[in-house]
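Supplementary Methods S3. Complex input for the S-adenosyl-L-homocysteine-bound model.
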Amino acid sequence: MFADRASFQLQSERLMQTLSDLGIRKDVLDAMAKVPRDAFLAPAFKHEAYKDAALPIGESQTISQPKVVALMTHALDVAKNHKVLEIGTGCGYQTAVLCKMARRVFTVERFESLSESADKRLQQLAVSNYVRQVGDGSLGWVGQAPFDRIMVTAASPQPPQALLDQLGEDGVMVIPIGKQEDEFQRLMRYYRRTDGSIGEYYLGDVRFVPLVGKQGVTAEAG
Ligand code: SAH
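Predicted complex, serialized as structure tokens:
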């Protein structure tokens, strides 16, 4: 077990090279390289931390595949002065990556157990520029809006209106759109134009757990 750190480091470097070959921007790779993904996994899954795979994190939820984290973070186009809203804290890995890139991250998770263990891990890694809330993230975080960026890591049949409303000037939201019964969901980038209207751009096909909430999937799926 103690030999793992060096081996993880090597595996992490290989993974970053793969992501770089895919055209992922350097600021995203730098942020991801600073966050040890193994720290977010249960002992039984740590050895798979630097494989490009989604893995279980408890409560039937999963940590996203590194390639998808990279693609979504790249598409979000985060800058140092940004205020970011993240929906679906899960294990906190994506939160940590966003914290390395933005001024402040507001993260919402519906399961208290996941939110609390994410908080512990982030504290252990000395990541502190975030605030967390347990609740229905499909409604956003009204008291803190507007946001420069919104990242949703659970799939919704439609883009929640509350989240679009909380997108500030030049705001960007990345979210998987589609029903659970569909084989894949469509990863979408929504952006607020200068005239206030919303544009959209299709990024690729992904597979995510459902966004369970008032403006997401209303009946508990699976
Ligand atoms: N970024 C996370 C992804 C976890 S999976 C990670 O890499 O670990 C998606 C997460 O979204 C799950 O933890 C799930 O509980 C959460 N989720 C689903 N619907 C939600 C909602 N309406 N509000 C907040 N979190 C939600």
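Residues 139 and 196 are 20 Å apart (CA to CA). Helices lie at 4-21, 26-33, 66-76, 93-101, 112-124, 161-165.
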